[in-house]
Each structure stands twice: as C-alpha cells, then as structure tokens.
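User: Please predict the structure of the protein below. I'd like the answer in structure-token form so I can feed it into my own downstream comparison script.

Assistant: Understood. Taking the following sequence of 431 residues as input:
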Amino acid sequence: MGAKEAILPDDLARTVIDPHAYAEWDGLLDTFDHIRAKMPVAKIVPSEKGLFEPFWLVTRYDDVMRISKDNATFLNNPKPVVFSFNDAIEFSRAATGSNMLVDSLVVFDAPVHPKYRKLTQDWFMPRNLARIEDEVRALAMRTVDRMIEVGPDIDFISEVAGPYPLRVVMQILGVPPEDEPRMKMLTQQLFGGQDADLSGTGVKNMTPEQVVQLVAGAVSTFEDYFAKLAEDRRATPTQDVASVIANARVDGAPLPPRDMAGYYIIVATAGHDTTSASTAGAMQALARDPEQFARVREDRSLLPGIVEEAIRWTSPVQHFMRTAAEDVEIGGQQVRAGDWMMINYVAANHDPAQFDDPRRFDAARSPNRHLAFGAGAHQCLGLHLARLEMRILFETLLDRVAAVEPAGEAKRASSTFVGGLKTLPLRVTPA
C-alpha cells in the first residue's frame, strides 16, 4: 500500500507552474530541492476549481528515469504532453481536434511513435551527420568572425547562441537564409509565448487563452510554410531532412498533412532553441570561471565534458507530462490509471543523489547520465546533432578568443516548458 496522498502546498505548487519562477533560477532550484527532500512525488491540485487537471510532480532522478524508460506504463497520450491550463486544452481541441496544437513525435505512443521516429533516425545518426560537418564548421567560423567584429562587448545570445544553431537546422531543412528571421520569431512565439521579450507581444497583459491563441497563430503559419516546402521536396527531392519527411511513407501511405506538419515543426523549433540554450549555458559558465576557460582552451579533450555538463546544467526542456496507463506506485505514492504526471528534468538533473554538488558546473563530471535529452523510446532524436554543433562552435571559438568575462546581468526566459538564457552580456578578448 502507498503512503497517504502527498498534496503539495499551494505556494510551492504555484512556483512549479509559474513561468516567471523559471526565470529566477536559483530560487527555482531551492524550491525543487525542498520538494524533492520532503515529498519527491507530490500531487498538485489547483486552488481554483477547473483551472487545470490535478497532476503528480516527480522530482527525483531515479523516478524520472524510471518513468522515461517505461513507455508502456507511462503514456504521452491521451492527455497533453506539456502542462496546460484547461482553457488552453479546450481551445486546442476546438481548433485542431487534439489536446495539443502540434501533433509530433513527442505526442505519439507505440505503435505509431516508433514508425515515425524510424523515418529520420538514420539521418540524425553520427555517420550521416559527418556529411554536414564541414558546413557546420563553416557556419561556426562565420558566426565567431561576426562576434569578434561586433565586440568586444556583445550579447552572446543575439550574436552567437541564437543565430548559429538556427542556421544549422534551417540548412538541414532546406529553409533559405532570408526566411530565418521568420522561423526564429515563430519559434519564440511557440516556446516563449509566456515571455514578453521573446514573444514580441504584450504577453504579460494576456490571459492564458490569449497566449494559446498567439501560439496557435504561430503553429498555423508554420504549417502553411512547411506544406509548401514539402510540396517542393516531393517534386525535387534533395539529401536534406525535409526531403526525407516529405517523401516518407508509413504502412504504405504518406504521412497525413497534420502529422507531416508536426514533424517539420518539431525539427525546426526544438532543433535549434534547445541547442541555443545549452550553448549559452556553457558560455556563461566559462565566462564566470576564467581558470576553466583557460584550461579547456589548452586541452580540447575537455570539450565533450563541457558540452555534456552544459546540457545538464541548463536543462533546456524543463518538463514533459505523462499519463499512467495502469495503477502503479512511485516514490511511495499510489498513482492511479489515468493520472496525469509531470516529470521535471530541472529537478531531476539537480538531484544530489545522482549529481555531486549539482549546481556547480563541472566539465570533468563523470559519470554524467543526465536526463536533459530524456531517456528510453522518446530520447531526443537530435542529441547527436546538438553535441556536434556545440563541439564545433567551441573548437572554433576557443581558437579565436583569449578570454571572456561577464559584462552585465544575464537574464533567463519566463517559460515552464523550454527555457534558458535570453540575454548574456559578455566582454570578449580576441586571441
């Protein structure tokens, strides 16, 4: 028998679902440390009836890993795979017939998910990515050249961490450079709709439903754009991933238009925004620690550790939701079939039971089995691409930069789902 149902107090529950709390990083980590120690699996019940469906918050590394790997017991469907208020879910159902505005790989369960994932899995494996390494290196060189030209004082996000992974992903999708600003804006509206600076709107004065309408508009624009791109790639296929998606067949039939659009959108958006956040996290850590910067500049064998630790330390994808398919006990709590659950990667990746001194950025951390890419069947499809991009960028940057230091206050995005720094002022000293 499980223990008495642990209900998270209202003040802590509000922090977990408040996008602005995720902008105050140290305070957020303090909150998760407290929750993890006191009630590692706790139910969050809305203080206002009908605001959102109650859900279980899971904060311990071992529990999040268990749920991530057991895709038969813990489903991505039928409930939303990202935390949503009831008004937003109703809006999505009315607009699309689905709980989610975008139906993509992250939404599907077996048997659909493995069939869809297999379509592009080989494309994103290291052997195939080696074909584009020279192009990525050329992009990194142009990005660092631009950074030095603009410097010495720069915003690393706007000059490097934002445009570089965006260009890489747009290149593999076959999106021309002139369309990149549009893709960036739509991504920020999709993932940063809760942040006034990123969404480019008066979002702080919007209701949750209005924010969802903003996101829905971005999704619709994405769908129109990629429908035209797919039509072009069916007529004239190339070696890019856009052609793979456009011409894919599952069980002998082409992908339905909504599923195809969702495939493009997840590659186009998650493929750069998360890498941007991890890249910025690595640079922030190195700027704060001149000795570590000098060390990695002299010994490039440390670079893989820098990349991996940045991804853990930043945890750009901050949570996913799962739905229990059957009664199960987690962390001493009895979870019932149909219960909604939040697996929080920020909390799991800062669990001291798994990571010694988890708030410290440690390039030599080993082992570093973080959960920032997820685990199991839904592990991030683009993890090898993200590692490749970051490694090449820092190889290039370390060749050209002698020192880097903070030049102002870094600010983090207000977002419960995909998060990271939105500004990172630095002073760069060329080599």
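That's the full token string. The chain is about 50% helix and 10% strand.
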